[in-house]
Each structure stands twice: as structure tokens, then as C-alpha cells.
Amino acid sequence: MKPLADRLRPEKLSEVAGQKHLIGEGKILTGIIESGNIPNMIFYGPSGSGKTTIANIIAANTGKQLFRLNATTASVSDIKDVINSAGGIFSTGGTLLYLDEIQHFNKKQQQTLLEYMENGNITLIASTTENPYFYIYNAVLSRSVIFEFKLLSEEDITELLVRAVNIESKDTLSGFDIEIEDGALEHIARVSFGDARKALNMLEVLLFSSKADGGSKINITLEAVSQVTQRKALNYDKDGDSHYDIISAFQKSIRGSDPDAAVHYLARLIIAEDIQIICRRLLVTAAEDIGLAYPQAIAVVKACVDSALQLGFPEARIPLSEAVILLATAPKSNSAINAIDAAIKDISDGVTGDIPAHLKDTHYKGSAERGHGEGYKYPHSYENHYIRQQYLPDDIRDRHYYEYGPNKTEMLAKEYWRKIKGE
Length: 423
What we know:
The protein has 423 residues and is of the alpha/beta class. Helices cover 49% and strands 8% of the residues.
């Protein structure tokens, strides 16, 4: 019997889980497939996100004969064999080569592949889990359309698991009745970290182990899920108080400069939460609580977040821990959030005014007659690239939103501008 993941592989785009930024009404990849004019493409994204599935659907919908190779084991001769096999009665719509893990092809192998792409012998769909701009030959990149696949959400995977259970119930000829304990499928989805194949494999193990008991009923319990996933199904409701309490404690520990507590709550979130929530909260914290005291922090955190999403768990815990400790031990400033919130409040309360004429757009005919730009002083034409002039509307010309934070970086900036402005 085929693995559950293969038996559930969608045959049309409407059945594909996730990737709603690429497929669906009005989306680019759907439009390409419906047009029938398939360009060479590179699918870039994590394992289990649907790259192979969509390649299969493309081949079926366009009448192309599909060949599959994996670059970890394939050679140039394998590509030539595909070309020699193409052109038969089964490939009247053309030949589509799906090359998995293309980053394992060296430059010479990719150049050979390029020859067949250019002469039209094949349409290439290459997939990779690595950034294609780092690993794929530029000439191949320039002749391909790149699509980035994203991790599936917990909700996407839960829906897929429900569909799998329904199909298994109908396909079980021996009359098995499948019962699912509340939260069991959600826990599988949570610990699969966006990988649909991993989630389905875990479900399949649970189904097989239950059938082996010899009874007529299959019970999938939280305890059984915990054994398969090797992660305890915590008493944790992602829509309840526990969810928000952990996230609150996580950010407040970073804000309070306690790296031990911050790492503790990170560990709770890693065990019981979606990686997307962790990454989002780290980026928010970098901007809200560290801010201008260490403005490079958000760039470092973004790199850690990207690495975590690319790696997946368990390795993702390392860059996430790095980001948390960096933020917890960094100097703190909330001057950025205070400034923008004060400005938004003024606008919401109607405290605003007309933009000064000398700041208005001058890039259209007739703007000069309306006085736009008149009297504007170009700062770069003056000493230290600064000249005093009014920027806020008349009604709020003396409004003050930004207050320098009491940290080294902002105090240096404050002293610099105090000197420049002669204050």
C-alpha cells in the first residue's frame, strides 16, 4: 500500500493545502497553469510545503510527460536519458522535468541542463530548500520564474489531517471506527512545524499502531500522539489564557532584561507553539523594546528568524535562542513606539493641518503657479547638510513627538544634533 501522504496527494489546485499567496483565484501560479504556457520554474521553500504536488498537477493539467530526478543522486547522463525518452506518444504536450534539490548540481551539471532548457527539449521545474540566489547558476536563474513556498500554517495542516482521517475511515474495509481525542490532530499539526508530509507520516504511524491491537476501533489519543511525536501534549489552549500568558511573559522577560526567564518562556513556546508566533514576537520586541538603543538588533533578529524558518525544528531552537538572548541583554528604548503612537493619536483626534507649501510636490505642470516648493531649502546645500526650516503644518508647528531615550546611542545622536542646530 502507498504511504498515506502519497494517497492523499491532491490532483487539483483547489485541494492543495496552503500556498494561498501563489494559488487561488487571481494568483500568479494558478494563472500560469490555466494558460497552459508553462515557463521554466524554480520552487523554493521548506520540505513538505507542496512543491512536488504542484509540479504533478502542472504536468497533468498541461498534458506534459513528467520525469522526476533528484539532484543528490542524478547525473548528466540521467538528464540525457530523460531527453532520449521524451518525444514518444505519451509526451505530445511536451516534456516536464521535475528536478528535486537542484542545489546539489554543480555548475557544469547546471550548464548542461541549461542547454536543454534553451533548445526547448524540456520544461524544467526545479525545487530547492536553499536560497536559489546562492546555489543556482545565474544563467539558469535568469531563464526561470522563481516561486517561494512557505511553511504551512497549523490550521492548514489540521484541515489536511481531518481530510486524511475521513479518507481512511471510508477506505477501511474491515470496519474500523476512528475516534480522535480533542486536540490530538492539532498537536500533530503543531509539532510538524509546517511540514505536511511529516504530519501525515505521524498520523499514519498512529493508525497502523492502533490497527495492530486487533480491535474494531481506532483511538487516537493525546497520549498516543505524544509517544509518536516525542513531544508532550501540554495542557495548552492556543486561543485561551495560557497562550497569551506565555507570550506576555516572554516579551516582558526580554523587556525586563532577564535572559534566563526569556529563554525559559522561549522553551515553552518551542514545545507548545507555532514557530511563526515566536518569530513575529521577536521582531516586534526588537522594534518596540530595544529600538533605537541598539538599532542593529532588528537586523540581527531578522537573520535569526529567517534561519529558524529555513532550518525548522529542532535546529531552529539555536538561532531563536541567539535572538532572545541578544534582545534580553541589549540596551532598551521605547522611544520609537512612543513617537509613532503620539503622532497617530494626534491624527486620529483631528490634530493636524495643511502641509506647508514649500514641502508640496513640484513634479507636475502648474505646481509653481500654486506656490508649491516656493522657499524650500535643500538641506544638502548647507553646512552639515542641515538648515532650519518648518516641516510640520502651521497648526502643529511646535508639536514634539520624539524624545531621545536615555541610552548611549540616542544620547550621542541628541548631542550631535544639539551642536548642529546650535541649541
